[in-house]
């Protein structure tokens, strides 16, 4: 059976739209023209006094992604950091935007494609987007990164993408199992369950690696915030001069 990477035949310069599962969507998107804004990313960032980026939390179910994401959002929004941030949660998104998707490999791919596009829009608006999705396939996460880091219209550099691997052994996740999902998966009641009957492809070079079985939520947030500070992502950008 072909791997996810082989099926996609990844090309770093290919737009994500080429991987849409529904060919009708691709055809519908062929007769469109991008409408640029006079407010460039640099000007927008200067006006809002903030840089936008996406923090992509990935890991098994019950790894602690959502808990850490909630705490991180609070830390970024409140003083002393006091920046605009918004959390996009895997379960929450399936109540609305992605409610038409299941958990087959193809649906998982489309789930991540959509959220990558949404996260980029948030980040492009100079908001810190925090996503917490299992996102089990390495190729899908790589495509999300490529989407963010691609040069923006007008020639400006792309949006920063910070991959955070919330790492936990399967047996620890099963012991936690707050939603009872692992138990149902072991009983065969949930097909295609990541870590049990479906694969999780571990990140190869995440910007941040947190072992949640050994790290408190508070320390996990501190680790992420320190990385952001060290990279200058939390600093106000220089004032841009408009023509």
TrEMBL record:
Listed CDD domains: APSK (cd02027)
InterPro entries: APS (IPR002891), APS_kinase_dom (IPR059117), P-loop_NTPase (IPR027417)
Pathway: Sulfur metabolism; hydrogen sulfide biosynthesis; sulfite from sulfate: step 2/3
GO molecular function: adenylylsulfate kinase activity
Reaction catalysed by this enzyme: adenosine 5'-phosphosulfate + ATP = 3'-phosphoadenylyl sulfate + ADP + H(+)
Family membership noted in the UniProt record: Belongs to the APS kinase family.
Protein name: Adenylyl-sulfate kinase
Source species taxonomy: Eukaryota, Fungi, Dikarya, Ascomycota, Pezizomycotina
